[in-house]
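Suppose you are handed a protein chain with no further information: no name, no annotation, nothing but its sequence. What can you learn? This example shows the usual starting point.
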Amino acid sequence: MIMSTMDSDVLLEISELSVTFKNRGETTVAVDGVSFDLKRKQRLGIVGESGSGKSVTSLSILNLLNTNPNNHSQGSILYHGGQKTQDLLAVEESALYKIRGRKISIVSQEPMSTLNPVRKCGDQVKEVLEVHDLGDKSGRKAKIIDLFKQVSLPDVERIYDSYPHQLSGGQLQRVNIAMALASDPDIIICDEPTTALDVTVQSQIIDLLKEMVQSQDIALIFISHDLDVVADICDSVVVMYQGKVVESGDLPDTFAAPSHPYTKALLSCKPTKDNRGKLLPTVDKIMKDTYVAEMRKKVSTDLEDVVISVDQLNVHFPNKRASLFGPKTYVKAVDDLSFDIRRSEILGIVGESGSGKSTVANCLAGLIEPTSGQMFYKGNMLNKRVLTQDRKLRTSIQLVFQDPYSSLNPKMTIGAAIKEPLRYHGIVSKDQLDNELRKLLNQVGLDDSYADRYPHQLSGGQRQRVCIARALSVRPDLLICDESVSALDVSVQAQILNLLDQLRGELHLTILFISHDLSVVHYLCDQVIVMKDGKIVERGSATKIMMQPEHDYTKKLIDSLPQPISETF
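A reasonable first move is to predict its three-dimensional structure. Written in structure tokens, the prediction is:
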């Protein structure tokens, strides 16, 4: 038994944790001498840029990295939640088996990489109860249904019997959270859990996690790049930079008066209603003291120069019949939708998960055949058949998906993934491929070394940047961004938003920007459409929608936003 003189309220004691990765003879220090404690009922936030070591630290707590012989961990992680203190880096696998998912649960950033695609969601949550022999067998389904209700899933009986591919990204993440709560753990580690959630569900999940920590004898580690969310949910924070802890302390004091330049830089990068007309700063420029506030260049749009026109679009999906001879019913994912996007315009679409935003994007990209209605690209009919046959048209309309993990081939290096469309469409000559690759990587904030890496060696934010670079590689006219910055930390998000704004000016790029983050939509977009249940409930300029909403649903979305840090202190 490991003896400890720590406070009896301490559940987790991390001391001098270091994690190194070896790849092709090169050693990377992902975590360097990290130390902090976690107490019962504490809500600890870990913040930092993508690649700062946040997720590696969380995975180390459950010793999920040492299964690879090229990974090496040092230090200690003492868990005080059981009858005896255990060093999670040193105990046998059989002891960890009783802790993982039972005493310490984790909610990952990417729900599709967590859930089994060939098993129903309800069965996957029930497996947690079965593996750890929790609860009465006859009452397990009822408990899961109750958990689904707690995390605000709609139509819980349908969700229970649905496969992961039948749910939206936000719904999948809520299933993951329900799975983590199923075993009544001592510690819940949430690694970017609200990234895929719309603002109203995010608000509900935050309230739920707060209430659980307060009412039960548990602790929460909340990893996020959204500082507003961390300030809302957490009572303390650890700030990580290049694998090290550079600042830690209680909230709100740490964010109100940060002492380290890196923390100050993170707080400066987030879009707010006050910096809409300015280019966003990045952490690198602030820390090097090279940031100079610049106004965004105004881009005029011609009302007559319509790139995309959508007229009375309908997309209906059949429901599962109650019986073989039962009536056939449909879900109206998109219901009589009409809008135009003009050249060089950025049109934002906002709404809750399941409102039909992504369905619209998939129709324009030719991935879904509409039930009825018409779509036009520069006056020419646009449909799945035309997109399939016309290679030039396929390069003109590019889609950046919400989930970067499932967008990339795990067997291809990053360089090969980006070169593939360049080579297939003949964008540049063979001897220019490497130069174009470097240019695209640099545009999205990645250096040349990433070309030889595989998707699993990148963080979620880094993978999303690769997806954006690949979409830009074919020089499209219309870029459809479906939650494309939701997985990015504030600094890289600022860089990508600046990049999109710059490209729209330089290349006259038209952008359809889909997001649940209203602050980002307000910053970037010219016009905004608000969708609910497949219909448009409000439309107008970004400033009007954000500052003077008319529809009750729009007001609800805005009220659900975490209070900006600048207004909190």
